[in-house]
Amino acid sequence: MLFAEPDQRFGRLDEYSRLGLAAITMTLRDAGMAEDGQKRPVGVIAATTHGCLTTDLAYLDTMIPHNGAMASPNLFAYTLPNCFLGEAAIRFGFTGPGFIIQEPDPAGYTCLSLAMAVLGDGDAQTMLAGVCDLSQTIPATVEPQPPAAAVFFALGLVPGPAGPPYGVLQFDSTGSLSFMGQRVTGIFDLVQACLHPAGHGSPVRRATVDLNLSTPESG
What we know:
Blueprint: H1 8-11, H2 15-30, E1 42-48, H3 53-63, H4 73-76, H5 83-92, E2 98-102, H6 109-121, E3 126-133, E4 149-156, E5 167-171, E6 177-179, E7 182-183, H7 187-195, E8 207-210
Parallel strand pairs: 1-2, 1-3, 4-8, 5-8
Antiparallel strand pairs: 3-4, 5-6, 6-7
Helix pairs in contact: 2-5
């Protein structure tokens, strides 16, 4: 469903990395940027609440019973939450900055503002910003619990190869985020705004950003 040909690397990823890489792949496809391997100044910032905790616990289950003698090398390779960003960079040729932020708020607001800051600094031409979390079986440590989901947006200063964007995302001088002039509270709110663009016509492709730090009222 994701790739034109079977991908052996994808098959050995842990579930958290599969979820994140799948969401990035579908985002690039939606943005008309899914060609493989070509080097390009694209970066990724992903927010997560639990990260690869499920993988870490699974790895410990292989390590503890035999004092490390039977520890899984495959699971160990994915005991960092940013591993799937490296997988995405290998597959899609990303050369821009890529990092994970641990964010207790499942709305994922911070990843959007950080991605826009990277664009403003000129460190990448396109930034993917999103969230990635698995469901957890351990007792909750944060409330509310994040949804078991991954979603990313392709942000750029100009429209991309897929044509007109979903709309304009603006980060104003008060620290608030708005989409097409309407305040958004986080990434899932932005998803709804793109899927149901009341008064803005049919949803199209990518989101561009306005980094002039003006208020929505002053343009």
